[in-house]
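**Protein record**
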Amino acid sequence: MGEGHPSLETLARWLAGELEHEDVLREVAPHLTASCPVCRLNEEEIRRLQEESGHWSETVAVFETRQAPELARLLEGRSFEEQMRLADENEDLHTWGLCQYLLRETREAVFEDPARAVETALVAIRLARHLGEAYHPGWVLDLRARAYGYLGNALRVMGELKAADYAFLRAEECFRQSGIGNLTGEAEILSLKASLRLDQRRFQEAYRLIEDTIDQYRTASSPAGLTKSLLKKAKLLKEWGKLEAAIQVLQGEEVNQIQDPRLLALARHDLLCCLVPMSRLEEAERLLPSVRASYGGIAGPVDWARLRWTEGELAQGFGRTDEAEAAYREVQGKFLEMGKSYDAALVSLDLAALLAGQGRTEELKGIAAEIVPVFESRDVHREAMAALLLFQQACAEERATLELIQQIAAVLRLERRGHSDS
């Protein structure tokens, strides 16, 4: 081929329909996409749809990904039982694209409505059983593995940890049987399983899973997956109490090279959250303006509230109690408005600890009187509610010591993990 053009012989064989498919891909298709802007854009869109669909076939990626929303409407508004029946009986629904669409719905719904996410994942699993000979059996098993992984994550968020364990076992079985070697898919499930182990406070296992996740994303050359895994590793180390190790991760070269502006902003905020409890206050205060600047235009209300919370902790560390109190009260109100029950309770306890240190017992009673009724009307775990009631009783009896408040906060942090975004 001269200057990227197919040779005369190649062109003749192609026009005659005699050119092998592999030769078309190697000698003709690159010329079309290189010389024609429209073809190049179409190829890029096909690659994007392939990534979105999680399937190797260009035709499956294009046709089924685009058909999936219309098929999904056949399931909308129906009971779970009716959806499962249709998944068995309606052959039009037996497509890879619809399964992948439902998995994306599962992933997006998991923190807002975990019960719906569980049901959606189960429908996807049922549909995957009916994917026929049009699909490679190994890829179908790979799809089922990811579906079980998403199911396990949704069950984790609901607090059904034993059921989540079983779902992850099924995911691992499907991956072993598939033989596809989908490194990014397996890495994603390993990362989700690490979140389960973290909820179970099995830190050693969670750490090992995160390390395996990082290795697989590196092998697969997946910068986005690697970045998220590094941030999860730092979060794990922070919750494990290994703040210095978390700081080392967050100050590492790979994190500093993050290209995604939002992830970079979150990484800097995470670093700030590690520096403050380590009493590296001057370093944290120097970092604060860059965190605030990096959030500009990309942070949501929850991000800003959490940053303001950190500002309060930093102010308290410096002994600027009035500034810290103002920040805590502001953030408490914002979290309650947003329905962030656990975060509101935790910042209330930070405020209570500040007031207890100043001997302001009457104001402690007011905090308890305000916060507990709010949580009685919300979906809060029994252990967390018991801790809040203990806090209320201790305040009423004027025996809410700093140590007791810290113990209650530890219980809430443990319970909050099922409501977090990890």
